[in-house]
Amino acid sequence: MIGNPPKLITITNDEYEAKFIGKTQDNRQFFLTTPFVPKSDRTDGREFIALYLFDFQGNFLEAKIDDLGIREEMDDDYRISLFQSRLDELGEISFQPIIIAPFRLEKFGTEFGFIVHKPEEMDEDWWVTVEPGDYMAFYSPWDSGDYDT
Fold this sequence. Notes:
Layout (H helix, E strand, L loop, with lengths): L8 E3 L9 E4 L4 E5 L2 E2 L8 E9 L5 E10 L6 H13 L4 E3 L2 E3 L2 E5 L2 E8 L9 E5 L5 E3 L7 E2 L1
Antiparallel strand pairs: 1-8, 2-3, 2-7, 3-5, 4-5, 5-6, 9-10, 10-11, 11-12, 12-13
């Protein structure tokens, strides 16, 4: 296996999955996002809003996760309102890059977080996926801010 698991990951702002990241006035870091469980033969899938909070050193503090239900049944107006409410509750913020430590937690019977994956082969590197939904995948160098979707 190549390298070591990351202790910290840099996330830089973009217009895609990392649009709502930054710092609060009290120097906490935040990541507001919309994870999901994809629809499959075994599940109708689910949509979520997740607000992850970290201290100034990148340590995970808490998660506020809202279950929006099945995508086809989801109330879009409610989703937009709740997302804006989660953003507003942060108070004065600045959108900027953040540096955070990987974490994992379970809620609604689903695993959430920035989850570290060990290489499967000796010539592979570590990686970190944002779950559920595996919609962002980070890789070394961990301070680049680059990710795959």
